[in-house]
Amino acid sequence: MSDPKDVLAQLLSPAQAEVLDSVGRAAWRSIAATLELLAGDAPTAAEVDGRLVMPDEIVDEYGDAHLVLPLQIATDRDQTATAYAIANTAIMAMYFDTMADDPAAQEQQTMLIAGTLLDQVAQALNREVLSRSTSGLRLTLGAIAANAMPGLLGAMDEPALALTATLSAGRILPFSLVLPGTFLDIVAGAMPAGGVEEAPSAAAAEPEAVPAAPPVPSASSVSAIDPSLGFTLTMDDLDAAEVVDEMPAPQRLRPQPVAEQPVFQAVQEPQPGFASGPAPAGPAFRQPTPISQGPAAHRARFAPLPDAETPAMRSGMDLLAGLQMHVCVELGRTELTVAEVLGLGPGSVIELDRLAGEPVDIMVNDRLVARGEVVVVDENFGVRVTEIVSQIDRMNELS
């Protein structure tokens, strides 16, 4: 099993390999945090292996049904390149809990969930990692395609880093990345020469505080007790606890007359260099009540806390239930020359490539998912869904 950093040093320069290794580690931290936020489980990556390959050498590795996600990068210098993330279709359906009797429906649902989830990952990468680029580096996701990797490899004519790993977050998902040399070269050149340093933790960023004197434990501040004493109840523990023996209400002590209380006078000790004189009379103090006359106290016994419940594995749709998705309706398209666009004005009519009465396209995150008819709802336009686009139609639209 080869370290990807060593393989990068063979494909690019050692300095570029250092930058890409730093970027890769920062990217994984961002990906893991995003997936944990969406799924509730912190993922781990295992069995990471890297190889330097020519595209035609690995075509036979993608004979089974698989899904391909294009990863497109671009800079503000008009540099562009595409890498590919690949996973087995059946294993990905099990991972996202999209198993179905109809293979076409299973594939379409898996592509929808995977694409939507990875859109969130791409946004996090752009915000947290690629924003440190010196040339506006940005990642966008292409449309997921089925069984397209052999054709893509046949059109690729440069060495690439073939990276394989296993994602584990309750379920196991083996996947691979094919990163062409041009893709890696653009990323290495667009990121800072020193790589991407890990942001300091909040504890490390704060100035060191002057240690304060330990607080005196009291009955109303149980959490302030020194943990080294072996008594570390929190307020949540107290709320969940059941007190078996109650403390009786304290008896009111009848105050004794002031005349019966002994009076103490402050005695001023003579100080060197100062003349001594009669000490002034101090204030009167009540005699302290002996401990034996105080209210009786009983040890509190707490009911055992219930065992923590193991969170159930959430299904693929549950993971995405709270995500926001951009939905738009497309009436039609056309192409205009620059002169025609400049000639537009009030009253101009643009003819679209769609006949009157034809269904309109319903796009979700810029992907065609359904068609419908335009309706009016309380003086607002709406669309009534008449057809869910099949996987075959979606692929024809993409092509």
Descriptive report:
- With 399 residues, the chain is an alpha+beta fold.
- Among the domains are: 4-198, CheC-like (Chemotaxis protein chec); 326-398, SpoA-like (Surface presentation of antigens (SPOA), Roll).
- It has eleven helices and eleven strands.
- A hairpin with a 2-residue loop joins strand 10 (367-377) and strand 11 (380-388).
- Residues 199-233 and 241-285 have low confidence and may be disordered.
Key descriptive features of the protein:
Surface presentation of antigens (SPOA), 11 helices, 11 strands, 399 residues, 28% helix, four-stranded antiparallel sheet, alpha+beta, seven-stranded antiparallel sheet, Chemotaxis protein chec
Query: With helices defined by DSSP (H or I, 4 residues minimum), what is the helix count?
Result: 11
Name of the CATH architecture of the domain at 4-198? 3-Layer(aba) Sandwich
Could you please say which CATH topology of the domain at 4-198 applies here? Chemotaxis protein chec
Arithmetic mean pLDDT:
75
Q: What class would the helix/strand composition place it in?
A: alpha+beta
As a percent range, the share of helical residues equals 25-40%
Stretches where pLDDT is under 50 for at least 5 consecutive residues are 199-233, 241-285
> What best-fitting shape do the alpha-carbon axes yield?
globular
Radius of gyration: 35 Å
Using DSSP, what is the number of strands?
Answer: 11
Broad CATH class of the domain at 4-198:
Alpha Beta
Biggest sheet architecture: 7 strands, antiparallel
Topology:
Blueprint: H1 4-11, H2 14-39, E1 44-53, E2 66-74, E3 80-88, H3 89-95, H4 103-128, E4 138-141, E5 145-146, H5 149-154, E6 160-168, E7 172-180, H6 181-190, H7 202-205, H8 235-240, H9 316-319, E8 327-330, H10 338-342, E9 360-364, E10 367-377, E11 380-388, H11 391-398
Antiparallel strand pairs: 1-6, 2-3, 2-4, 2-5, 3-7, 6-7, 8-9, 9-10, 10-11
Helix pairs in contact: 1-2, 2-4, 2-6, 3-4
